[in-house]
Each structure stands twice: as structure tokens, then as C-alpha cells.
Amino acid sequence: MKKEILTFVRRMFISAAIFFSVSMPFKYLFSLVPGVTEIRPANVVPPVLGILFGLPAALGISIGNLISDILGGSNLFICVTGFIANFLFAYLPYRMWYTEFNSKGKVNSPNLSSMKDVIKFIFVIFINSLLVTILLMLIFETAGFGSSGENAPLLFFNNFDFAMILGVPLLSILANSKVTPCFPKKKERTHIRKIFLKISSAVPYVISAVGIGYFCLSKFVDNEMKPNITLPMMIVFMLMLIIYICRPFTSDIDMTVKKKAKFSIKAKVTVGFLITAVVFIAFVFQATYTSMTMNGEIPRLTLVNHIYLVVGIAINIIFGVTILALWYVESRITLPIEKISELVGEFAGQDHLGDNDNKKLKEMCNFIQERTKDEIGELAHDFNRMMGDIEKYVLNIRTVTAEKERIGAELNVATQIQADMLPRIFPAFPERNELDIYATMNPAKEVGGDFYDFFMVDERHLAIVVADVSGKGVPAALFMVIGKTLIKDHTQPDKDLGEVFTEVNDLLCESNSEGLFITAFEGVLDLVNGNFRFVNAGHEIPYICKKDGKFEPYKIRAGFVLAGMEGMHYKCGEMQLEVGDKIFQYTDGVTEATNANNELYGMDRLTETLGRYSYLSPTELLPKIKEDIDGFVGEAPQFDDITMLCLEYKARMEV
């Protein structure tokens, strides 16, 4: 709190000192235009410092003006009203800037970084100059300095022109420097505040309309016929403006541009043109003033020649200033942009996969950034950073590509190893006429988690296994190897298949840090009598096709998955197969195959397809099923492994 008070007082005294030191020299120019108190470039100080610092600047400027009025011998009425008028002249722009024309509840900081902000500043200065002119003319008439309408236009343009022409470059320079503006504290929009904002927003425009009408009346109506209401009007207008400046601030301040703290290109160009205008106005004023002092003392031709000479010199100076401005634009704007364009073209034309030395390009970008220090400098900085990012990205791509190629080669080997682990030589048992078996596995990735297996437990028993490991890729494939090996090793003649899965489950749980699990189906067919014993650990139910019939799902109770929980017990079931019967088993990659419309292949479609091709042998059946799945899926990617196995019991084994 103490720091805020010190800052407030410091800004107030600095503003008072600046205004006093700038305004005092122009006190001696009163005699130039009788009836007008001052013509002074000092009029730029109140709105600029007011917009930047708000209340402390307005109080400081009012104090500075009060001191100058006292030193100038002004009476009490002029000192008091002048204090109020200068306070409003400085504080009204601050209020208008942060309360009028806010976009979506936000207002930009006053750094004039865009033409929209420049136009807003000019409008604020226009309304502010109009209001202060109205007040001053009412003050002058009340003090007995003459009619309100006599010098109002001159006083208005005196206030507006200097505040606009000098105000835009001065505010741009200050707001884009290290000076920290005084931002108002936002208050929430309550219902009462909304009503107050709407009503009070019309105050400046009502005063402007009434004041202009009154001055026009004063211009064309005899003073004796005009009612003497200047003092009440002055008091009412001051009270209305005081009510207006008490409006709450309800907008957020957009600090994006201020954080960059830059003097933008638009601001530079605007300042250049306004400086040119100031030079021209100064010469025109000098020529006009000379003509006033010389009139009647020298011949008219000499006076015309003098004015012509002054204006000619002014035009040449303006031409020189314009040339310097164009040179500045070319050296600091056009040429740096062209150079950056060349650098971009040179960098874009490189073979980024090769080795490139961009040291010179980066040095040039750093040079441009240090030279301009504006949007072009930021562009050079961003391009420099982009070059570094692209170089890192290309290097990363090289590393990733090399690593991907290495992993790809290793995955190819892994794919081949996995394929070699599964039985894939068909016919599998060419020396036996009791059975026909065929199986396929299509992984969704290079390696998969599905697996199938079939092997002779002894001379008369054939075991088949179809399983699916949760997850995909390398972890699932490694877990698949463990599961496949354990199931095959524990499947023994005359051993209950429920015990096999119980033992395998406990072993898998011991080495399952990744939390994977396996759904598995194992069956053992007695080739002598057709007895088929099976165990199901959370896997899909098999399809059975009786001789000369169609495939139908064989509903059995599925046990818990393998590796899901230690200590689980599994039960063995059995069925009787006759010669000519077939068994079809698969993984969920078949029924859950998805097309582009996010539709599943499903069991109904699988049942229909199996029924259509029930007469085919296992070797012919599985390709037909895969063909139908591919036709259904279309161009949609494969998300899961597709594994199928079909066993046909063709003849009884003779003992």
C-alpha cells in the first residue's frame, strides 16, 4: 500500500513539473490572438499523460496549471475553473479509453500498435477537445472575456490539433518504452452498474450537442437578446462530466502487445508522417505570423515573395524529411524484409536430409534482429529459431528413422520366428487318414498375441489349442510364447485338461508383472472312439458341424481367463464326435472385425458364412471365411489378430 501511494505521488509531481515547464513559455504568446488565453503545443501533455497515468497525472497537470495561472496573475475564478478544466482535459481521455468502444469486454493498452487504436485515440482526443473547449468558452464568457462563439473554433483546433499531431507519436514512444501505464482496476458488472454505464455513456455527446448549439446561437444572436445562462451551464456541464468520470471500469485490459514492449512499424510510419506535418505547420505558422507583422509596413509584392519563399523552403524541407523517411523505410523495413525473404528461399532450397551449415544464415538473422528491433526483428528471430527447430527435427527424424529401420528388421525376424513356432506345414499328418486339420493366423501388427497349436499327445490322441493374449505387439507375442509352451508341456496322456489349465494358470500368474492374460481353448480328440475332451478359459465357443449338416455354435460354459487370478480351478468337458464331424475354433478377431461404418462382423454373419461353406474341407473352408471377412471390412484397418482352426474327424483309428 505504501509503495502504491509513493508511486501515485511521484507520478503526480512528475506530471505537474512536465506540464508547468512546457506551458510557461507559451504564456508570453497571449498577445498573438486577442481574446484567446493561449495557443500552445503544451496541450498535448494533459491527454497523453492522462491516458498513461490516469488520476495522478490529471491532478499533477491541474496543479501545474494552477501554479502557472497564479504566477501569471490570474484571478481566483480563473484559477479554480482552470484547475477543474485541466483536470477534466487530462482525466476524460483516460476514462474514455478504458470505457468506450471496448471489443468483447476487452480494451487494448494505449500503445497505438494498430491503426484501429490510432483512430480510437484521435476520436477520444476529438471529443475531449470539444468538451474542454465548451467549458473554457463558458468560463471565458462568465469571466467577461467576450462572447462564447467568437474564438471557439480557434480554441478547439488549438486543443485538438496539437493533442492529435503531437499526441500520436508522443504516446507511441512513451507507451512502447519502459514506462509502465497505470491500468484501472476492473469491477464486476452489477445490475446497477450496467444501468449507470448506459446512462452516463451519453454524457459527452449530450454536452457536445448542447454546447455547439449554444455557441452557434451566440454567433448569430445579439448578446442583448441571448439569455445569460453561461454560469449555470458551466456548473451543470462540470457536474455531468464529474459524474461521467466516476463510471466503473468493467473491461479486461489486453496486455499482449504491451508485453512485447516494441515500437511497431505502423507506429514508426505514423510518427514519420506526423513529424512531417508538424514541420509543415510550423513553417506555415511562421509565414502567417510574419505576414501579420509586416502588413502595411512593406509592399505587397515583397510580402508575397516572402510568404512564397517561406512556403518554398517548407516544401523543400518536407521533401527532404520525406526522402529521409523513405530511406529509413527502405533501410529498416524493405531491405530487411527482402533479406529475410532471400534467407527463407535459401533455407527452403536446401536438402534438409543432408548436412547443411546454416551458421551464416543465423548470423544474418541475428544482425537483422539487432538492427530493427520491431516486427521484422521478431520475424528474423522466429525464422532463426525455426531453422534451429527444423535442424533438430531433421536430426531427430534421422535418428528415429534409423531406429525404426532397426526395429523393423528385428520385427521381421520376430515375425518369422513366431510363424516358425506355429505349425504351418499342411497337410499336417499326411501319413494319417483319420483326420484333416488346417489353421491360419493373421496378426494385426508385425507380431501378434493370438496363437494356435495342434500336436499328437500320444499315438491315438490329438490336441488342438486356440488362444488369444490380451494386448498386441511384442509384449503379447512374448507372453504367447510362454503360454503356448506351458500348455503343450503340461498336456499329457490321460491327464485331465482342467488340471492342465489350473497348473498353467498358476505358473503364468507367477511371472505376469505386465498384467496380461490369455483366453484359451484346448481340446483332445480320441481318434479311436471319437471322444472329444475340452477346457475353455474365457475363450469363444467352438462351432460343431455334424456329418452332412451345417456348423452350429456349441454352447459351453467358459471358465476364467488364464493368468487373471492365481488359484483358479478349471473343469473339463467332453462331447462325442462321429466320423465326418468338424470342429471350428477361432479368436475374437473374427467376430470383432470392424468395417468403415464401425459395424462388427459378428457371430450371426460368421454362422451364416460357416453354414454356406459347411461342405468344404478345412483347407478350403478357412480361406473362404477370411475372404468374407475381408469383403466385409473393406479398406478399414485390421485392429486385432485373426486366428482360425478347423479339425475334421474323417475315420476311426484302428487299434
Show the helix and strand layout.
Elements: H1 2-23, H2 45-53, H3 55-71, H4 76-99, E1 106-108, H5 115-143, H6 152-165, H7 167-175, H8 191-200, H9 203-220, H10 230-245, E2 252-254, H11 256-260, H12 265-294, H13 300-348, H14 359-372, H15 375-421, E3 435-442, E4 450-456, E5 461-469, H16 473-490, H17 497-510, E6 518-526, E7 531-537, E8 543-545, E9 551-553, E10 573-576, E11 582-586, H18 588-591, H19 602-612, H20 618-633, E12 642-649
Parallel strand pairs: 1-2
Antiparallel strand pairs: 3-12, 4-5, 5-6, 6-7, 7-10, 8-9, 8-11, 11-12
Offer a few descriptive terms.
12 strands, alpha+beta, about 10% strand, single chain, 5-stranded antiparallel beta sheet, about 650 residues
Task: Explain what the structure shows.
57% of the residues lie in helices and 11% in strands. The protein has 20 helices and 12 strands. It has helices spanning 2-23, 45-53, 55-71, 76-99, 115-143, 152-165, 167-175, 191-200, 203-220, 230-245, 256-260, 265-294, 300-348, 359-372, 375-421, 473-490, 497-510, 588-591, 602-612, 618-633; strands spanning 106-108, 252-254, 435-442, 450-456, 461-469, 518-526, 531-537, 543-545, 551-553, 573-576, 582-586, 642-649. The strands form 3 sheets. The protein has a 5-stranded antiparallel sheet. A 5-stranded antiparallel sheet has the order 4-5-6-7-10, with helices on one face. α1 packs across α3 (55-71). Residues 31-39 and 257-261 have low confidence and may be disordered.
